[in-house]
């Protein structure tokens, strides 16, 4: 009760990535370029898919949604991180911190569900190709995307509720460069063991369960590819390997962070940078550089001067 009667924290202070100003300048330049490339790359994919009728298929519909999520996901943390690299004191108000936390989990969970749906789409296309047009028609695709956003919203609301229900009366130093549930609840003026367990049962379980489902689906796909022709097998492997690279790059850090909220390691910041900064940039690179259809569509749009 004494903790609850104390003054509530009105702002948090980030420790950031480093306190070395030379490294901060170098990080600022590197991450600024990364953020711009992330926006341009994902916008390029979105525009290419929208303006290319032959790409209006379930796979590319999901890919356009992935690009949209990556734009939003990176924009939740990157601008504030870049601002912090230029400021000596890196602060964020309590309300803005909670808002950042909410949208971070919304877009991260939406991406987890979308990658799982994309794996299911590839499973149906490769293992039951004759039923694919009926099983994965556009109406079903829209329903799946609506469901993933609904699921992401519910998950994010749960995470936000678990965080805001705790009292915060100091300290207010977050050992990170953005607001997330594990580092924020450590600052609560009460025991957070139960909250930590609920986080594991929510974020950790979602990440781990979806990842295992993805592994199972790709295992079935690889087994079924033995019956395919050499050309069909090569095309399927190219598509699936690109998807699996994205899955591994995104799920690995999420599982590492959200299955152990009560403990922290020095490498946590590096892992966080990887899934909030690097992965959104790698997605368009992986899907465009390895996908002949997308590259041809981009070339055709350049000739039509869509981007001029």
TrEMBL record:
Its main location: membrane. The chain crosses the membrane at residues 25-52, 98-120, 140-158, 206-225, 237-258, 270-289. Residues 41-287 form the G-protein coupled receptors family 1 profile domain. SMART domains: 7TM_GPCR_Srsx (SM01381). The keyword DNA damage does not apply. InterPro entries: GPCR_Rhodpsn (IPR000276), GPCR_Rhodpsn_7TM (IPR017452), Olfact_rcpt (IPR000725), Olfactory_Receptors (IPR050427). Gene3D superfamilies: Rhodopsin 7-helix transmembrane proteins. GO terms for cellular component: plasma membrane. Keywords: Cell membrane, G-protein coupled receptor, Membrane, Olfaction, Receptor, Sensory transduction, Transducer, Transmembrane, Transmembrane helix. It is found in: Cell membrane. It is a multi-pass membrane protein. SUPFAM superfamilies: Family A G protein-coupled receptor-like (SSF81321). Pfam families: 7tm_4. It comes from the Eukaryota. GO terms for molecular function: copper ion binding; G protein-coupled receptor activity; odorant binding; olfactory receptor activity. Belongs to the G-protein coupled receptor 1 family. Putative odorant or sperm cell receptor. This is Olfactory receptor. It comes from Equus asinus.
